[in-house]
Amino acid sequence: MESQPLPLTGITVVAVEQAVAAPFATRQLADLGARVIKVERIDGGDFARGYDSAAGGLASHFVWCNRGKESIALDLKDPRGVAVVRRLIAGADVFVQNLAHGAAARLGLDAATLCAAHPRLVAVDISGYGPSGPYAGKRAYDMLVQCEAGLVSVTGTPGQPVKAGIPAADIAAAMYAFSGVLAALVRRGVSGRGGPVEVSMLDALAEWMGHPLHHAMHGGTPPARTGLAHAVIAPYDAYPTADGGRVLLSVQNDREWRRLAEQVIGRPELGTDPDFATNAARVENRERTDALVGEALGGLGADEAVVLLERAGVACARLRDVQQLAEHPQLAARERWREVGSPVGPLRALLPPITLPGGGEAPMGDVPALGEHTEALLRAVGMADAEIAALRRDGVAA
Questions:
Q1: What does the pLDDT average to over 225-240?
Q2: pLDDT tens digits, residue range 234-268?
């Protein structure tokens, strides 16, 4: 069968973006074959470039979110810089921005203005709290939105709320922006018109809070913070093993509990004991339930415990750290790792999660240096040598 092209081949995206939310959204588009032109500040570029230097001297956030893009460095405080962006947008299918509240509108780069001028353009505004309302102008860093959305209130231990260890609000907004672009492109294929797309970090993360939100709204009480345990299921937690590991298991129904009691704990009578026979009883007696499971697993190595639990048909997992994720046998067996180029040489990176069998593999292009493609892109929009030289001389392009 003839190989299918990547679904976004031929689509051009221009992005005035920074940090995580917009860059992660546009990286998904690049992974599906789109050409992504990243507009950066001339004085250091996307500020995520300076978050750390863990990836061989590059920032880990930047490497994660920006492979496969072309970088052009422009001063958007100068009208000539904005004019270049407008010329790039004139040849684009999609425009994405996540500038501070009001900044895009002041530059004439907000979605409504651009879509009025370019009816086929899909233009995305990503914000922290949306374009209106009392929070519209509020700074919206990931941790702050996690707090405003209530995620921190349901994450952690009974005594200590904690933020998620990944930028959950940024990622949520990115993925809704990504899917919003895809939906708008499908609509354009039918109607011939693009249109604005609005995504806010708060809206996105509030949607992800659906289970605890509905539990609180309709049940009257918010779910308790339970660490790795589950508020309404037992046993459901991570248990130490003899070799210093931890194994998480989840018993979803009473049949699984009976198998666990017989084949792992070694006490089949617990399957019918009224203190443990039902999930409600086990939750009521959570400490005793956890003690029984902990005693059984505490004498086993982690690998041995996983084998025993799987043989009993009980859902389980190793509690891995991020280095162990990098060495995960399933990722290795499925050949999910690739190398991408960067200014500091090849870097290891995961294939994107969307797999399209029968089609080409995600291109996973290089991580760009700041302004690496400035000259080529300026020439592509019709600028002559003298004009390019003037922009560079005046600090408008770099």
A1: 91
A2: 999 999 999 999 999 999 999 999 999 999 999 99
Contact call for residues 290 and 237 (beta carbons, < 8 A)? yes
SS (H, E, C) 150-182: CCHHHCEECCEECCCCCCHHHHHHHHHHHHHHH
223 has pLDDT over 90: no
The answer to whether 287 touches 231, Cβ cutoff 8 Å, is: no
Active site residue 170: yes
- Confidence band for 360, pLDDT divided at 50, 70 and 90: confident
pLDDT exceeds 90 at position 386? yes
Q: Of 144, 181, 180, which is closest to residue 163 (Cα–Cα)?
A: 144
**3-state class (DSSP) for residue 306:** helix
Tokens of 237: 């937690």
Sign of the four-CA dihedral 112, 113, 115, 119: positive
- With cut-offs at 50, 70 and 90, classify the pLDDT of residue 1: low
Helix (H, G, I), strand (E, B) or coil at 66: helix
What residue has token string 């904690």? 162
**How many contiguous H segments (helices) and E segments (strands) does the chain have?**
17, 13
- Contact status, residue 13 vs residue 35, Cβ threshold 8 Å: yes
Q: Whose CA is closest to 88, among 47, 60, 118?
A: 118
Kindly name the residue from 125, 170, 237, 366 that is annotated as catalytic: 170
Q: For residue 222, what pLDDT is reported?
A: 83
Closest to 369 (Cα-Cα) out of 338, 341, 393:
341
Cα separation, 36 vs 158, in Å, equals: 44
State the helix-helix crossing angle for 79-90 and 385-393, rounded to 10 degrees. Answer: 140
Please give the distance of CA 20 from its chain centroid, rounded to a whole number.
Answer: 8
